[in-house]
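Progress note, sequence design subtask.
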């Protein structure tokens, strides 16, 4: 967008992409920070220049990528860890019981944002990213030595989950300081690291454990994370002044906006389902007679595909609408689960195709949902609004894997049909909720960019 843009041409962050004109690299985009609430008819204006590119913005983006590798990489590797623990340290526990270890980790991963978001708005990045990185690395060192169930729960789930929430929330909010019109692309690129970490860590686990043992495998992963965390702390910084008037806590005002309420409901439902295929695709393949070596590679294949699913939709969403892309991707996941995974059986081709395609279509659950939330608020409130949203959504991540484990254990065990129905129906409901949120925001016109 040219620098001679007039005041009449200024656009809100919520719809900055609607013009179809993307800014040139390194140029400043003047966006009117206007949030219109149809219920209260109040409008708040604050004009900020977003770099949308350039050396500094891209260095922050690379720093964000490095910051997210440890927590989101491990989050996307829980299938490999769960399968290993089920056969080794925790072999006397059921799959559902072991699932609680990773559910609590995922729950705290997002629930901590309820306080981390407002703290970010009030005090900035460093007070969160540094202790978060130290705490997460400490949790990996503890994980390497765990033998008992309670040790995994306290050392990894609690310490690791809370530390990860400080990293994730502050990093996603920092990206919002540097990008507006390109926020979908920027957030998507940063979150591709979850898919990449989900490739690297399972391969390391599968390759190194037979050679150096479980403990040293986890320590090696921790050493890798140290390097990426150091780069993140060095490169990342905020740009806008802190909102010192912001109080920590739950943002009740956001729920006066029907779009926000419906969006949270949609994300909640998706988060009940999104971790089901990554968590159970390996055990599904093993239960259907697929070669064990290949079964353990399926999670890496799914995560490799999700790199595309996190990065590419951001480019499309910034031009054609973030909610539009979320609706299409959720619908795609629904069809893949109910039409492909449901009937895959022992077909290696079908299972592999599902893993690839689900990875591509499900990536938006990580890359675009934060951008949808940011579209409904001012940047200076983004941390708080995001923390509120994911504080609630975290309860879905807490319940998702254990509930799935209980469904799987029904009818004498191995109830994969029930598990797949559960996952597919949830995605269908999420598709409907995103559609309603879009309708409240822009009406029912099919080709409307929103």
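Output:
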């Amino acid at each position: 967008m040219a620098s001679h843009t007039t005041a009449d041409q200024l656009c809100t962050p919520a719809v900055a992409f609607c013009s179809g004109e993307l800014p040139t690299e390194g140029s400043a985009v003047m966006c009117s920070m206007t949030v219109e609430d149809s219920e209260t008819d109040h409008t708040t204006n604050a004009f900020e220049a977003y770099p949308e590119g350039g050396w500094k913005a891209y260095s922050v983006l690379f720093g964000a990528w490095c910051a997210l590798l440890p927590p989101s990489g491990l989050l996307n590797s829980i299938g490999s860890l769960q399968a290993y623990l089920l056969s080794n340290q925790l072999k006397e526990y059921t799959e559902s019981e072991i699932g609680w270890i990773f559910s609590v980790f995922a729950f705290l991963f997002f629930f901590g944002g309820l306080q981390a978001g407002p703290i970010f708005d009030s005090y900035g990045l460093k007070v969160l990213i540094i202790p978060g990185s130290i705490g997460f690395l400490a949790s990996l060192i503890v994980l390497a030595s765990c033998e008992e169930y309670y040790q995994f729960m306290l050392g990894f789930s609690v310490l690791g989950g809370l530390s990860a929430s400080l990293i994730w929330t502050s990093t996603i909010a920092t990206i919002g300081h540097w990008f507006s019109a390109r926020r979908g692309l920027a957030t998507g690129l940063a979150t591709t690291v979850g898919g990449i970490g989900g490739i690297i860590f399972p391969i390391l686990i599968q390759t190194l454990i037979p050679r150096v043992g479980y403990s040293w495998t986890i320590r090696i992963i921790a050493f890798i994370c140290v390097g990426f965390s150091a780069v993140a702390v060095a490169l990342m910084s905020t740009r806008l002044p802190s909102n010192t008037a912001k109080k920590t806590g739950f943002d009740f005002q956001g729920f006066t906006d029907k779009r926000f309420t419906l969006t949270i409901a949609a994300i909640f439902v998706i988060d009940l389902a999104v971790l089901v295929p990554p968590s159970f695709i390996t055990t599904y393949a093993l239960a259907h007679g697929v070669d064990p070596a290949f079964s353990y590679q399926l999670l890496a294949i799914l995560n490799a595909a999700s790199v595309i699913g996190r990065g590419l939709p951001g480019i499309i969403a910034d031009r054609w609408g973030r909610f539009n892309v979320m609706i299409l991707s959720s619908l795609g996941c629904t069809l893949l689960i109910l039409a492909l995974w449901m009937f895959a059986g022992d077909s290696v081709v079908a299972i592999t195709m599902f893993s690839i395609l689900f990875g591509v279509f499900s990536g938006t659950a990580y890359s675009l949902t934060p951008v949808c939330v940011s579209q409904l608020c001012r940047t200076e409130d983004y941390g708080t609004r995001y923390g509120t949203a994911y504080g609630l959504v975290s309860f879905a991540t807490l319940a998702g894997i254990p509930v799935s484990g209980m469904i799987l254990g029904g009818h004498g065990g191995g109830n994969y049909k029930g598990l797949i129905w559960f996952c597919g129906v949830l995605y269908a409901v999420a598709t409907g909720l995103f559609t309603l949120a879009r309708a409240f925001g822009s009406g029912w016109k099919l080709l409307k960019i929103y």
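The two ends are 20 Å apart (CA to CA). Work on this subtask will continue into the next period as scheduled.
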